[in-house]
Amino acid sequence: MAEQRYRAVLAVIAEGHPVSSVAQQWGVSRQTVHAWLRRYEDGGLEALADRSHRPGSCPHQMSAVVEAAVLELRREHRAWGPRRLVVELVRGKVMPLP
């Protein structure tokens, strides 16, 4: 995939082909070719490699301390639901709450 992007970038930069014709030739949008050009200018050939789509972080993930406290309470008190667990976590001053 990076090789395809590199060839498209070279077609625009070195050979002087218009972005629109390169985009049509490779079956992508003009915006995509412009993005490849920008990435190439910023980071060279390495920047054209596939990038991960994985999010950088998960804002909803609870801390290990809170997770351990919840799991311990669930093991000890299987009948307790989420509301009761939160009440007990507040009593135990486990923060931040899930």
Structure, explained:
The chain is mostly helical and 98 residues long. It has two domains: 2-48; 61-98. Helix content is 58%, strand content 0%. It has five helices and no strands. It has helices spanning 2-13, 19-26, 30-43, 64-76, 82-91. The protein is rod-shaped, with a radius of gyration of 26 Å. It starts with a helix and ends in a 7-residue tail after the last helix. The mean pLDDT is 91.
* Series of H and E elements: HHHHH
On the 0 to 100 scale, the average pLDDT is 91
Q: Main β-sheet, in a few words?
A: none
Radius of gyration: 26 Å
Secondary structure: number of strands? 0
Count every helix, treating DSSP H or I runs of 4 or more residues as helices.
5
Q: What is the structural class?
A: mainly alpha
Distance N to C terminus: 41 Å
Q: Low-confidence runs (pLDDT<50, min 5 residues)?
A: none
What percentage of the residues does DSSP assign to strands (E)?
Answer: under 5%
- What is the percent of helical residues? 55-70%
Shape: rod-shaped
Structurally, the number of domains stands at 2
In terms of topology, how is this protein built?
Elements (H helix, E strand, L loop, with lengths): L1 H12 L5 H8 L3 H14 L20 H13 L5 H10 L7
Any descriptors?
WH-like_DNA-bd_sf; Helix-turn-helix domain-containing protein; rod-shaped; mainly alpha; 98 residues
Short description:
This protein has 98 residues and is mainly α.
